[in-house]
Design goal:
41% of the residues lie in helices and 23% in strands. The chain has 9 helices and 10 strands. The strands form 2 sheets. Strands 6-7-8-3-9-10 form a 6-stranded mixed beta sheet, with helices on both faces. Strands 2-1-4-5 form a 4-stranded antiparallel beta sheet, with helices on one face. β9 and β10 form a beta hairpin.
């Protein structure tokens, strides 16, 4: 079976700073992989290299068997197979929700007006926002805006979804509504690569967890292995800090 995405010996440097130092792993069709690790470990850079928003310094990235690092590849064609959801929502503030979902369909996929509206409405319903198609982004909560961003990506019919810390810009009470949508996508069999600090989501939804630090993959495996019984000290240290921070945040919320 051809991997949905395969990353081979990937390096990325910014000047003298080595951000990625020889990354190797692949994701099978229908698999959900959560990438965790401390800030600055290279997680988001890896995600951006996965659809060539960042050009790798060396190594290869294959999407559905197509080497997107090949200079002769039609990268725009390959990118149509990949949905990307960012930390910030990146919606067009001057356009209503429905227009945000139809504009790329029409310009990139050359769909007609009726078809693009039908697909937009289907995907707004999919994320629970069928009643918000005539709203402007500023009229929505952060969680609703992120769900619109997910619906916009889904409207393009991707085979693979990349999520770059999709809940990090949200207030805590809004995180759950976005994670519920992502859980639903996983249940539908969507192939997903998720950079996240949400350990509960990784534990419950991921098929595999990848822990990165210092630009390398330190450890990977099933969630109960990496999160429950990590082999490496760096993984144990990271998880202990995350658990401590979660306890502090919970205590703060309870006394607020």
């Amino acid at each position: 079976m051809t991997a949905a995405i395969e990353i081979q010996r990937l390096h990325k440097s910014f000047g003298s700073l080595d951000v990625l130092r020889g990354i190797d792993f692949s994701i099978a069709p229908g698999e959900v992989v959560c990438v965790i690790g401390p800030s600055g470990s290279g997680k988001s850079t890896l995600l951006r290299c996965a659809n060539l928003l960042e050009q790798p310094s060396s190594g290869r990235v294959l999407v559905g068997g197509v080497d997107i690092t090949d200079p002769d590849v039609d990268i725009d064609r390959v990118r149509r197979r990949i949905g990307m959801v960012y930390q910030q929502f990146n919606l067009f503030p001057h356009l209503k929700v429905l227009k945000n979902l139809t504009i790329a369909q029409r310009k990139v996929l050359k769909r007609g007006e009726a078809e693009s509206v039908r697909i937009a409405r289907e995907n707004l319903a999919r994320v629970g926002l069928a009643d918000k198609e005539l709203s402007y982004p500023a009229q929505l909560s952060g969680g609703q805006q992120q769900r619109v961003a997910i619906a916009r990506a889904l409207a393009m019919g991707p085979e693979l979804m990349l999520f770059d810390e999709p809940t990090s810009a949200l207030d805590p009470e809004l995180v759950g509504e976005v994670l519920r949508v992502m859980r639903g996508l996983a249940d539908e069999g969507m192939t997903m690569m998720v950079v996240t600090h949400e350990m509960g989501f990784a534990r419950d939804v991921a098929d595999r967890v990848v822990f990165m630090d210092g630009g390398v993959v330190v450890e990977e495996g099933r969630p109960h292995e990496v999160l429950g019984s990590p082999r490496h000290e760096r993984t144990r240290s990271f998880l202990s800090r995350v658990i401590h921070a979660e306890k502090v945040n919970t205590a703060t919320e309870d006394t607020a």
